[in-house]
Design a protein that fits this description.
261 residues, mainly alpha, Arc Repressor Mutant, subunit A, two-stranded antiparallel ribbon
């Protein structure tokens, strides 16, 4: 599947729009909203929590609305989208894997964040990730869309997101590190590939599990743990791996996937 051909009906985003021209993936704000709003909350519930109740602690109404707008762009905040619905369902039990869960969802909905992933993932643990190098990646891959000022802002925002997720550490100097990954994050990464029409062993070698920063065999072990916990079903016979997600999609969504692929 091409990088600009992810299934938007299921929650992915293609195109040029990006929250990271102004914000990061806002892990702290997302966490606060998930504390305030129940798992089956509606978009209106998130709006009330962010704007009326000001659970994010923003000083002005304008800032509250702007923050909610950016968060909604990154995560969806509606159970109508399986991408968000599954994130919200896995969140309570994900523990230390929550930052990577958030990164997976944000990457699925922010094309610009996806562009910066290879530069981070290819770096060895402990290596320095220079902001100038990130700026060069963005300038090259964005094909002249941004001014130098915007490129600097995007590099800073995306570096902050990768730091929040655990792939980088440090403030002024960013060093490559390994994120915490749980079975929930692995299950979600495989599910994103499933939504994109992938099946079998291919689920373990695509962009989404690459964000886990683990070898395929490590991801398989996490998937086996997820299967044992009842999160998904996994069957293996030699090199053949069969993964399914019973109850994760509605019949209508299953039909859409079948027709799309």
């Amino acid at each position: 599947m091409a990088a600009d051909d992810f299934p938007e009906a299921l929650g992915f985003k293609n195109g040029d729009a990006s929250v990271h021209t102004a914000r990061t993936m806002m892990l702290a704000e997302l966490t606060a909203l998930f504390v305030a709003v129940p798992p089956d909350g509606s978009p209106d519930d998130y709006a009330r929590a962010a704007i009326d109740d000001n659970v994010l602690g923003k000083r002005s109404l304008v800032t509250r609305r702007s923050t909610l707008k950016h968060l909604t762009a990154l995560y969806g905040f509606t159970p109508r989208l399986p991408l968000f619905r599954t994130l919200r369902r896995l969140w309570p039990q994900a523990g230390l894997g929550r930052p990577v869960l958030a990164l997976l969802c944000a990457s699925a909905r922010d094309p610009l964040l996806r562009l910066t992933a290879p530069n981070v993932l290819k770096a060895k643990e402990g290596a320095t990730i220079a902001r100038g190098d990130v700026e060069q990646v963005i300038a090259t891959l964005a094909h002249g869309r941004f001014s130098p000022k915007t490129i600097r802002s995007v590099a800073q925002s995306t570096n902050s997101t990768w730091t929040q997720a655990g792939h980088l550490t440090g403030r002024a100097k960013k060093l490559r590190s390994r994120p915490r990954v749980t079975r929930e994050a692995a299950a979600y990464a495989l599910f994103l590939g499933y939504l994109c029409g992938l099946r079998g062993p291919a689920l373990f070698t695509t962009f989404w599990p690459s964000l886990l920063d683990r070898r395929p065999e490590e991801i398989l072990t996490l998937a086996e743990e997820a299967s044992a916990a009842g999160l998904l079903t996994l069957k293996q016979a030699g090199p053949v791996v069969d993964v399914h997600f019973p109850g994760w999609l509605t019949p209508e969504e299953e039909a859409f996937l079948h027709e799309s692929h």
